[in-house]
Amino acid sequence: MHHTHNNALDLSSAMSKPVQVLQLYPEKELVFKGPFTKVVTTTLQLTNPTDKTVCFKVKTTAPKQYYVRPNSGIILSKKTVSISIMLQPLFHDNPVELRHKFMVQSAFMPDSGCNLETIWKSVPDGGFMDSKLRAVLMPANEEEVEDFSSDYQHSSSSGGIEAEYRGLLDHSKKLQSQLDTIRIENQALRRQLEVLKTDSSENLIRSNNPQEDSMNMVAVIVVAVIAILLFLYFCRSIL
Known about the structure:
Elements: H1 2-16, E1 23-25, E2 29-33, E3 40-47, E4 54-60, E5 66-69, E6 72-75, E7 80-87, E8 101-108, H2 116-122, E9 129-138, H3 142-156, H4 159-207, H5 210-238
Parallel strand pairs: 2-9
Antiparallel strand pairs: 1-3, 3-7, 4-6, 4-8, 5-7, 8-9
GO cellular component, one term: endoplasmic reticulum membrane
Coiled coil: 172-199
InterPro entries: Ig-like_fold, MSP_dom, PapD-like_sf, VAP
């Protein structure tokens, strides 16, 4: 009886979870083709088909093994963002047996606009839209392994290259964060501009109302006719 109650709770939770609005390509699998003695990169595309701005972030079960850039940001309406996912060199007897997974979480940007960190903290548990993908590691043939073995030995002898690479990635992350902030501020300015345009249009419509103009013209004509009649009556009285 207790087990049935838990199943009902799980079903209710699944039904209440919001559906992912982002379109992912690929949808289910991220393919990495070896050899894995060097950095292997694949691309994930996120498309926002809605009329609202969507925030996103990408998570993985192996954060030390993958560099994801950008790993968070915003996607404007009807736009697509390309995510570069870089698998670091592997030292594993059989890399294809690894079970690495990824998750794309998303949420709608509030109309007022705010910092990305604030948005993630404000969304309650279970309020995110998410999609899951698995990493598929395809082994290379023996010729490819031989071609890259000498390059890998040369690069592994110099730790400075990896440090420089990580520094560039960190700098790229900071630039992406600044770009996201600029985009949010730009959206807020656009909304303010639209409000000003709407107010200006309403004032212009009121000032150029043709019905009011025609009524004013009729009033002028009536006053003029009355003035002429009074003038003629006055002239006849004198005569």
